[in-house]
């Protein structure tokens, strides 16, 4: 068995996958998509330097970068010959928060009230309607670019924040802010692989941003049937093999905040869960099906 690992950089996730492959006696090939060539009406299909990529049955996708459309097109082409984890369509849906919300709505999965617009006047209207909102870039991760605006802010302050955001990100993804049901800010990262769920709390405390990259504390979360079912359905709604599903507890029950198709797993490592071993084993079984 051989696994291809596609990434423009060798980060901690890639290193973990490599270590798991070594431990499980699985051959692997690290592939930087910047060095792939595809031949049309040529004597080769797809190669990495001088080596064909058609002899690898399954590929793990880590990081394609944000500024090279062709790197994503490579996955679409490679999918004709090999299994891809995660599939290109799933990465596309999860990589765009609007498309994520669209798919969650299609399958009637609970999520915060959300408005997407490029209009500053519309943004101000919905800020006032929701009274407290989080505005996110359509594309991004690790809490980067996210701002919070409240109705009681001055119009000057609102316009300053919105103009600065629009200049950089163009479009406003506006979600109602879900008030914490406890005395501290926290949400749940449910890490789903196939039909297995691992979950932990990300506790921001006084900081409403609960990302681990923003300093959130980690605490094991008990997985009940409702949380497990929601996490699996959210992953499947986006056509993913594995996913990081961000869930928040509200007075109305669980709501899905985001679905990540190429999640990191620092939180699980802090809880001594070797998720890369589990992922590699499940990828091998998936490829042999």
Compose a concise summary of this entry.
This is 30S ribosomal protein S6 modification protein RimK. GO terms for molecular function: ATP binding; ligase activity, forming carbon-nitrogen bonds; metal ion binding. With 289 residues, this protein is α+β, with helices and mostly antiparallel strands.
Name the overall outline.
globular
- What does the largest sheet look like? 5 strands, antiparallel
Percentage of residues assigned to helices: 25-40%
Total individual domains: 3
What top-tier CATH class of the largest domain fits best?
Alpha Beta
Main attributes of the structure:
ATP-grasp_RimK-type; 5-stranded antiparallel beta sheet; D-amino Acid Aminotransferase, Chain A, domain 1; THMPT_Glu_ligase; nucleotide-binding; Dna Ligase, domain 1; alpha+beta; 30% strand; ATP_grasp_subdomain_1; 3 domains; single chain
């Amino acid at each position: 068995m051989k696994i291809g690992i596609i990434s423009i950089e060798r980060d901690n996730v890639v290193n973990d996958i490599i270590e798991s492959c070594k431990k499980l006696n699985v051959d692997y090939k690290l592939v930087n998509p910047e060095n792939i060539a595809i031949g049309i009406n040529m004597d080769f299909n797809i190669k990495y330097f001088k080596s064909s990529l058609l002899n690898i049955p399954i590929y793990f996708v880590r990081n394609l970068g944000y500024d090279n459309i062709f790197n994503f097109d490579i996955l679409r082409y490679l999918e004709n010959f090999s299994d891809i984890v995660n599939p290109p369509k799933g990465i596309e849906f999860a990589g765009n928060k609007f498309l994520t919300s669209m798919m969650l709505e299609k399958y009637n999965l609970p999520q915060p009230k959300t408005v997407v617009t490029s209009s500053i006047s519309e943004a101000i209207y919905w800020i006032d309607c929701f009274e407290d909102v989080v505005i996110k870039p359509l594309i991004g991760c690790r809490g980067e670019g996210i701002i919070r605006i409240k109705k009681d802010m001055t119009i000057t302050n609102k316009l300053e924040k919105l103009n600065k955001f629009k200049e950089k990100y163009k479009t406003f993804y506006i979600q109602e802010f879900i008030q914490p049901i406890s005395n501290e800010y926290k949400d749940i990262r449910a890490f789903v692989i196939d039909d297995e769920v691992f979950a932990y709390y990300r506790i921001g405390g006084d900081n409403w941003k609960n990302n681990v990259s923003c300093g959130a504390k980690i605490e094991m979360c008990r997985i009940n049937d409702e949380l497990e079912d929601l996490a699996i359905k959210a992953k499947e709604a986006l056509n993913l093999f594995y996913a990081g599903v961000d869930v928040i507890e509200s007075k109305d029950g669980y709501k899905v905040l985001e679905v990540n198709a190429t999640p990191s797993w620092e939180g699980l490592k802090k809880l001594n869960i070797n998720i890369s071993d589990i992922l590699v084993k499940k990828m091998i079984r998936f490829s042999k099906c």
